[in-house]
Amino acid sequence: MRSDVTVPILCRSAVAWLGVAGAGVLMSSGPDTQEVRTATDELATVLAELEVTVGEGPVRTARELGSPVLVGDFDSPEHSHRWPLYAPLAVQAGVHAQFVLPLRVGVIDVGIFVFHRTAPAPLEPELFADALAYGELMLLLLLNEQAGSTGDGSDIGLSLRSTQVHQATGMVAAQLDVSLDDAFAALRARAFAQQRPLSEIAADVVVRRFRFTREGGPS
Fold first, then answer.
1. Which 3 state secondary structure label does DSSP give 162?
2. Total tally of structural domains belonging to the chain
3. Transcription: present as a keyword of the record (predicted)?
4. Which of 38, 43, 81, 171 has the fewest CB atoms below 10 angstroms from its CB?
5. How far apart are CA 195 and CA 159, in angstroms?
């Protein structure tokens, strides 16, 4: 693979070729968490945060099944029933269709390639085949990076955002004297209750705008 092909470049190329509104690559950082490796627009990041906040969605389903999940219309009864929390929030954010491709080597979960549209429309069969080809290329790029090659630094801001969530989780764990998993659940619940991105809640904790207490949540 040519050395000038990077994860962000391949992501943008896929968006243009597939005729979707945006795309993102997510990396698994645990059974219930994920980090944005790169994204072509803010919506891709918003969708990732929504899934972490509500604990459901196409990405989680694709990871559990180990197979693609294609959603042509979040307003359809099928998808509204499948993801009762995530589907209406995705539509509210401006996304009506989402297509998720797991990036795997055997049983190893390397990452997720996610595409979205702002209008309801299925991914045509010929474009789905092209999306799978892009997925194979993305998997090769990610494996090459893990083997020692470096990226171009274009997604540093997104990485910092994920780092802040990790930092806030540690702080909440200390404040509540609970495990990291329970602390992360408390952050997620707070974000969902306030209808705010998880990253904003984490930022408030890190800068000590509020702290969690056993008596009544944040103070």
1. helix
2. 2
3. yes
4. 81
5. 22
Residue 1, domain member (yes or no): no
Q: Quick check: pTM over 0.85?
A: no
Contacts of 119 (CB under 8 A, 6+ apart): 96, 97
- State whether 66 and 131 are in the same domain: yes
Residue 217 lies in a domain: no
Q: What's the CA gap between 118 and 206, in Å, rounded?
A: 33
Both 142 and 161 in a single domain?
no
Domain boundary among 117, 146, 175: 146
Q: What are phi and psi of 212, to 5 degrees?
A: -85, 140
Which residue in the block uniquely carries the two structure tokens 């806030």? 168
pLDDT of 87 higher than 90: yes
| Distance from C-alpha of 138 to C-alpha of 121, rounded to nearest angstrom | 24
Note the residue count of the chain.
219
Domain contains 113: yes
